[in-house]
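RETRY 2/3 - previous attempt timed out on the joint model. Re-submitting the same 304-residue input unchanged.
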Amino acid sequence: MHISIQIDASVQEPELTIRAPQLTSEIERIIASLRLLSQQITVTRNGETVILDAASVMYAESVDRKTFIYTKDACYETDLRLYEAEQLLCRCGFVRVSKSCLVQLQTVRALQTEIGRKLRLTLENGEQIIVSRQYADEIRQRLEVI
Amino acid sequence: MKIQNILKRFIVTVFANFGFAILVLLTGSRFIGSEAKSFSPLFALGSEGLPNGVVFMFFLGTLVLMGIRFLFLSDAVIRSMQIPTRVFLTVLLSFAFMLGLIIFCGWFPKDTAIPWIVFAVSFIAVCIRSTLVSFRQIRKENEMLTDALHKFQNQGNA
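RETRY 2/3 succeeded.
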């Protein structure tokens, strides 16, 4: 892939243009990666409102109608419902792994098959998440192993 | 998975295994039935076929063995159990059941060593083979998933 960078002082805002004969999965991933860098999510912790980069989020979980956002070393709460967080983050590489959990695939350290076609995800911080059969097949499709 | 699908899969597995077992027994009866007739009720009809009671017992046996397999080697009933524990319990209970069935039905003389040795060796061989095949499949799929994940992560983000 050829990468060219043009520095032009007259340009008001950085602009990225991708030129390709067709939209491939590789290009889609690059676009998702760029979105991840620019996507932010508003969360709260101990009454303090924080704006997090989506790239730092490992997973989001819904517990008792509350949505929690987990980074490598902290847990935050957001006013968004899980499906709203999914809409916001799905283009940034997040996948649904159960009815109550979204995971960013970039933060997955290891994947293992479990009995009944389920998957066990080990995240960068060592936490393990079981992916139910329905969502495991979607992840397999996303990783192009089906 | 819907309960109908689980039941359908279970019934298909039971009949597939039962059919295979009967085929093996009929082949045995055809070739060694006459000689085995004197010491095993399995071959009471010699090379003429299999007694109804034996066929029925084999069906019940297959049903129970597949039930044990279904109970421990799928997540339909027991949802959280480590794979080695599942394999161990499946092997243990299957062996105990087979042993009970042989003794209860008197399929071969209790005081003759050779049939017991053949049974034990066959059982162990089948267990080792199926365990190795399963573990090899799991390892292969894990490697594929890991490669796909690394490729996915290296190509950018999701």
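The CA atoms of residues 19 and 59 of chain B lie 9 Å apart. Closing ticket.
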